[in-house]
Amino acid sequence: MNTSKNQRVGRADNYRAKYLVLLDNGGAPRALLFDQDRHYLAELIDDDGLVLDNLMRVGTMCSMPADLALHSVANPLTMRCFTLG
Fold first, then answer.
1. Strands of the 19-23 sheet, one edge to the other
2. pLDDT of 33-50, one tens digit each?
3. pTM greater than 0.90
4. What gap in Å lies between CA 81 and CA 23, rounded to an integer?
5. R_g over Cα of the chain
6. How far apart are CA 62 and CA 50, in angstroms?
7. Would you tell me which of 11, 13, 34, 38 could form a disulfide with 19, CB atoms 3.0–4.6 Å apart?
């Protein structure tokens, strides 16, 4: 079965981060990434904060979508949400 380039790119888009939720826990900068359907993708721990600073710079601060899967986060008062791309 031969897969076209457009089909491969379409599948890759399913895993592109749309929301970054920055967590302020007093330690190393940490964020959760979610896709456009608000499904959890990954956790990002950034020792020096450079990656998260760059993502926040290109993102736009937004209200926290109510349907993000944040059940594993202990304190929702210390979060900020950004939309990416």
1. 40-45, 30-34, 19-23, 79-83, 60-62
2. 999 988 889 988 888 888
3. no
4. 9
5. 14
6. 21
7. 34
